[in-house]
Amino acid sequence: MAQAAAVASGVMAYGVLLDPEYVGVLVACAPGVPRPPSPWIVDDDDPRLWWLERGDVTPYFMGPAPLLVALGADEEHVVLLDVLSGPVTVAVQGEPRLARAVVASVAAQLDARLPMGAVTVAAGVHDRHPGPDQATTIATARHRALTTGTPSFAVCAAFPGVPEGSAGSWPTAGVPEGSAGSWPAAPVRVVVSGAVRGTARLVVAHADGTVNVHGTPLRADARALPRALASMIRALPPYRTPDAPNDGLTERHLPTRDATP
Q1: Contact by Cβ (8 Å): 72, 225
Q2: pTM for this one?
Q3: With 147 labelled, which of 36, 37, 186, 243 sits at a CA distance of 20 to 30 A?
């Protein structure tokens, strides 16, 4: 992803499609950004999707390392989202049962890949994980981030101050610190089920078992995600620092289309 972002200053990479031969990087581009040079291949159907043969992927790349989580699979690829790019909040809305399952699955992946203590999961995210209340979850993540200077994650079943099932609001700027329902400042990042206040990356869960990232072409079948992760969560490689080789996350670690019922 950093390799795609380095094409031009106006490029932000946020998602990945992964198969044994190619890596597809989903990008958001500022106006006037030129087409990427060879060996990049621009998708015929969507110019926001750039392909690279696996052999052309640079193993070392300076800069912020993406933190990829699986959302599911499409017909040919594992579909991944970078939770360190874009807004600090990822909100999963839509069909409630699937939304909660996706949030729990993302929490499990983060917890498996990040250092101990980097992820705090609140009560209500997972039936078998009691967890602290939302306020304590956010306070714990904030304290850890301020103490270590590295990103920490708070995973919540609902946004503080927004009743569960509420439509919420989507202003173009974040809620001021200290106001009702305010979100902690970066480097705390948040994954939440349901409505939020403030800027967020919206993942929509649908009744057919698919999810999509609102406003982007990224879409995946998420029905098999919890079961697939349960069988391979311990095999996920740890997240690596920006100056280390690529994080080793490959399609063999992740759910495939074959696992989808």
Answers
A1: yes
A2: 0.81
A3: 243
